[in-house]
Design goal:
Blueprint lengths: L3 H5 L8 E2 L2 E2 L1 E2 L10 H14 L9 H21 L7 E4 L2 H11 L9 E5 L8 H10 L2 E5 L9 H7 L4 E7 L11 H10 L3 E5 L11 H4 L3 E5 L10 E5 L1 H6 L10 E4 L4 E3 L13 H17 L1 H19 L5 E4 L8 E6 L4 H10 L2 E2 L1 E3 L4 H7 L4 E5 L6 H18 L1
Parallel strand pairs: 3-15, 5-6, 5-7, 7-8, 8-9
Antiparallel strand pairs: 1-2, 4-10, 9-10, 11-12, 13-14, 14-17, 16-17
Bound molecules: ligand C6P.
Length: about 400
């Protein structure tokens, strides 16, 4: 049975006060809080086995290497990837996307098309713009409707044999829309295009099965799944990872170096140049184990309750507009209150202990679509409660009163 109070007790930060008020942390879309097991695992790594990996014959180095590779296996199992070497440690979602976009410069030619969607985070726009600038390819955008859903008929119309890669998020960070990625992938494959899924906002809420989705690449960040910052994952199908050139050169990623020519290491090391975030990589495995113990079915069910309750309570507020009203949504509510700048609401409710994100959420094209400077975004995690939603709604009402 899912017991939210028991879960909350595992997160030391949640019992803090901020500005003299109990913390209500609704900025989980930006980064998730960390359970004690994760905090302890970081400390244990540095206290007991800190050493560089894949290099030393000494015992600590072997212990650290083993722990790092165990974590890779944990993530392979979690994503249902076919092989452990399809799991590449990165510094986060942003690096994962840049790695793939950079590699596609060897594949994409002038006149080809690279497709993203209207719902993307800047991390899944700018690296593809770099690619287009480098190669002369054209960036094509799948449009969305007023509910913040992708218009699939337009997507299918835009696909052609010129499309070389489609890069879309699984869940929108700014609106919470859950995209039909399996469908998107199948359609792209019909025209021979590869697909990268940005799973930064999906992985905290669901367990992706990369073989079932049949995506070519799937990326996410450790810090959003209760793990450490500075670590993330790029899953890539073996055939694609073999085809793409390395992203960074350096130690670890080579087979043999001479001044005339360098040959590259096998996967996954070809993409893991330099000393990685070892503690981060190991502890990401701990975080994934922790979430699986809670259970993604429990997480999904409970977060849906929070989303429904939060939406209902916020709609009590006069002058509110909620952005992102699609059928299939994660526990994210983006909104504005008529006549008030989102930043002002965010600042006042912070004084009342409530942490939300305000602004464009690194998704300016979405803000441009709605013709707004930004929104107030409350993003719930499985450790949040309905009582916290009540505190948050009352805080927003108070701010509205003060500002109007
Ligand atoms: N979104 C948010 O508050 P990094 O920074 O590499 O861990 O993740 C980038 C990223 C990529 N794609 C999506 C869909 C994202 O939501 C994010 C990060 C945070 O919404 C911080 S901007």
């Amino acid at each position: 049975m899912f017991d939210v109070q028991k879960v909350r007790a595992q997160f030391p930060i949640l019992s803090q006060t901020v500005n003299g008020k109990p913390l209500v942390y609704f900025d989980n879309g930006a980064t998730a809080q960390k359970p004690q097991v994760v905090i302890d695992a970081i400390s244990k790594y540095y206290s007991e086995i800190n050493a560089n990996i894949h290099r030393g014959v000494h015992t600590l180095s072997q212990l650290a290497t083993d722990a790092y590779e165990v974590s890779r296996n944990t993530i392979q199992t979690h994503l249902n990837a076919k092989y452990p070497h399809e799991i590449i440690f990165t510094s986060g979602t942003t690096q994962g996307i840049n790695l793939v976009a950079n590699g596609f410069a060897a594949i994409v030619k002038s006149g080809d098309e690279v497709m993203v969607s209207a719902l993307e985070h800047h991390s899944n726009i700018v690296p593809w713009q770099f690619l287009c600038e480098k190669t002369g390819a054209k960036l094509v955008v799948i449009p969305m409707n007023d509910k913040g859903e992708l218009i699939l008929s337009e997507y299918e119309r835009l696909l052609s044999d010129k499309t070389k890669i489609v890069a879309v998020n699984h869940i929108s960070n700014a609106l919470g829309t859950v995209n039909p990625v399996k469908y998107i992938i199948a359609k792209a494959h019909k025209v021979g295009a590869a697909v990268l899924i940005d799973g930064a906002q999906a992985t905290p809420h669901l367990r992706p099965d990369v073989q079932d989705l049949d995506c070519d690449f799937y990326v996410f960040s450790g810090h959003k799944v209760c793990g450490p910052t500075g670590v993330g994952i790029l899953y890539g199908k073996e055939s694609w990872l073999n085809q793409l050139p390395p992203y960074m050169g350096g130690g670890e990623m080579i087979k043999e170096v001479t001044f005339e020519k360098t040959t590259y290491a096998d996967l996954p090391h070809k993409f893991e140049a330099g000393t990685p975030n070892i503690a981060g990589g190991i502890v990401l495995g701990t975080a994934i184990d922790y979430l699986n113990e809670i259970g993604f079915d429990n997480i999904a069910k409970y977060e849906q309750e929070l989303l429904d309750y939060g939406t209902k309570r916020l709609l009590e507020i006069e002058g509110i507009t909620i952005y992102g009203t699609g059928e299939n949504k994660a526990s994210v509510i983006s909104f504005n209150i008529e006549g008030i700048h989102p930043y002002d609401i965010g600042t006042i409710i912070d004084k009342l202990g409530v942490a939300v994100r305000t602004g464009h959420h690194c998704a300016q094209p979405i803000m441009n679509y709605f013709n707004i400077p930004g929104t107030i975004r409350a993003s719930f995690a499985f450790y949040n409660t309905k009582e916290e939603i009540d505190i948050f709604v009352e805080a927003v009402k108070k701010a509205q009163l003060m500002l109007s």
